[in-house]
Amino acid sequence: MRPDDQHQPEDLTAIELRIQQASDLVVPSDTLRGRIVGEALRRHRDEQTDRKILRYGFTLLLASVCVLFAFAALEKRFEDRFKPVTSEVLLRRADELRAEGDLEPAESLALAYDEWRMHLKASGWTKQPNALGSNGYKRSANPE
Amino acid sequence: MTLDLSIPQLVQQQAQRIAELGSPAVAGLYDLTSQRLVRFAATITRNQHDAEDAVASALLKIVADPEIFTRANHPWPFLLQIVRNDALQILRRKKRWASAKLAITNALADLICPNRVDGAEKKEASEKVWLALRQLPTEQAEVVVLKIWEELTFQEISWTLEIPLPTAASRYRYAIAKLSEMLGHQIEDLSESLAGESSQFSSNRPSIRREEV
Prior knowledge:
Chain A is mainly α and about 140 residues long.
């Protein structure tokens, strides 16, 4: 026999209504809301703080990289490196000198070379032995 | 108008709010569902303190990962399912206190009941229903709670409890049969008064959905 065969439908409806009426007997305790909502707000605050720290950290990192790049660029900009003259430049200057005066090619080339040497001397570059033992140009402390 | 919406629709709304505003919006979900969730969990744990722990644990899971809730197709049965799982977990943890649980099966001392303006008589009647529910096996009691108090369909109940639909229906039938035995003598006493109140009751409260199974 099925369990509800012994009951009339109206009995079942009455039981269901009876049970339904008992639904509001229990209420959550006063502290439960504070416990859940407080924890939710705490986690939300923590998340926001984490997000802020991450954002500020990333910004700081980005700024540091920018400053580093700026310093590197400045250093490069003001770096005083020896720039050797090329034969092409010397030959062009020799041609100019030859055009200005009545000079032989060898004379004009020697003159151009002398000019460059004078320029180096005036800028304070002198030939000195470097750490590897070969001669290299270095800027002297008191250029003439 | 929110007053016209059913609980599943209101829970759906809350899910959308949580998706938009994040975890602080869980307060709205709590206000909407706490009483229902606590009484459902109390049916499983047979103890309000444990039931509240289960509800807190379930809602905090939603706070930790709101997407699991907002992505659910049916948030209300899904929420009930989370609460049930947490309640069962608490129950398993407390299995060694099974004897203590048995002791409170026949009492309602753990429940927090509001001071009702409609008198002690109704409270007494409600307590008898709760006591009768506690006499039922948990798997039957939870089907009754979901069917009558939460007004879920057997399909939703079977999904929430992860049982086949016919099982849900038969558990309900067995539970109602037992409850009618336990509460039967009171039903006869109350049938006359219920008949008098039925017209007023039907206009104030949602009727229980009858389903053919």
